[in-house]
Known about the structure:
By secondary structure, this protein is an alpha/beta fold. It has eight helices and eight strands, in the order βααβααβααβββββαα. It has a six-stranded mixed beta sheet, sandwiched between helices. The longest helix is centred in the C-terminal third of the chain and has 15 residues, at 204-218. It starts with 20 loop residues before the first strand and ends with a helix.
Amino acid sequence: xxxxxxxxxxxxxxxxQKDGLMICGINWGGSPDNPSEEESASFFSDIRYNNYxxxxxxxxxxxxxxHPLQVKEETAGPFERSxxxxxxxxxxxxxxxxxxxxxxxxxEWENFEFHVQxxxxxxxxxxSVTMLGTLNSRNCLxxxxxxxxxxAPVQILxxxxxxxxxxxxxxxxxxxxxxxxxxxxLPHPTGSIGLSDEYIREFAEDISPLLDHYKIVRGFxx
Length: 222
């Protein structure tokens, strides 16, 4: 399979053409037989476009991490413009249930690699912790090293979080650096059954400093 076209809904800005923040999901939702109307490209958090539950959840998570995104053109800044959205897989489907995701990621390594080579992100947010596992797998680790640089030890975090006296369902969060690329792996925002914003909020202390560092390196924060 040949990959030669960027599969992104976000507009190209100076801030995301290189060293940006790449949000990498699994694949595009919906049915390829019934595509949604094409919308004008803009910055990721522009409230006028792509106002779907998936994006709404991610906006909430950035806020919970202490890095809220502006949603209006007149207030959006370089941080908002530095974000680019894509997916590891080139396919479109309403659900990935029944699919063995690690195998799917390995099969479409070239699509992921192409997007990284073209976008050259400084920070990647995976919306599947299995993606981080794929990078570290025997099928992809050498390829990942050639793409990014040598890997640091991976951190897989889970926490016990209670709400209303009940223990919330636990999910994994992954953090790792490859070369000078920071990677954070989060659960899928709409496909993770039982995932609550309260649980995600507990990882603000782990993720907020990484976003702070990204902003400082990019000159977005004094």
